[in-house]
Amino acid sequence: MSGLAGLIDHTLLKSNIDKQQIENLCADAIENEFAAVCIPPYYVSNAASLLKDSNVKVATVIGFPMGYATLFAKVEEIKRAIQDGADEIDAVLNISAVKDGSWNYVTNEIQSFTRAAHLKGKILKLIIEAAVLTDEQVRKVCEIANTEKVDFVKTSTGYNGGATTEMVSQLKEYLNDSIKIKASGGIRTKAQAISLIDAGAQRIGTSASKDII
After folding, report:
1. Between the CA atoms of 102, 93, 111 and 107, what dihedral angle is there, to the nearest 10 degrees?
2. What is the DSSP letter of 180?
3. SS3 of 106, please?
4. Mean pLDDT on 56-68
5. What are the residue numbers of the active site?
6. Which domains are assigned to the chain?
């Protein structure tokens, strides 16, 4: 993989998609050499089969999009996704717990996500919905992410505001250099993608992948 395409998670997370759309998504990802496809958990085993002889990774979402499912349920989701063939886990943080100031809960959740993924040698991307958090809340979440050594912090699900260069710069300031940033939500053009990468994002999540490249 090289260039912009190799930084893109080719994404399809609508609720009304069928297997043919997943097959088309995977074919596009192979042809364009995208980093990964990001798809609903239901289709992980199908995508894993389609991509097994390629360099494209299978990413799926956990607790998506609201993040307020129980920790136990989300950890079980992670385990099942990995069993089905997921390489990368994009897990939504419990934003309600952040807003409530329940930092022990937040720490336990991030720790549990990371351990469940890393135990099986998989990538953990923590989705934090930066658009709805205060600067102090973002800072605290990043401190925990640093301690637990998540692989990526992801800006957004796309349901509560999209990624901005300011958001990426904020994460870059608070995160250790070893933790990468995934910008996601509302990214529709090549210019947007490049500006986010220039700000510090190392992965772009978008459903407009083909248009962007």
Report:
1. -20
2. E
3. helix
4. 97
5. 90, 154, 182
6. 4-212 (3.20.20.70)
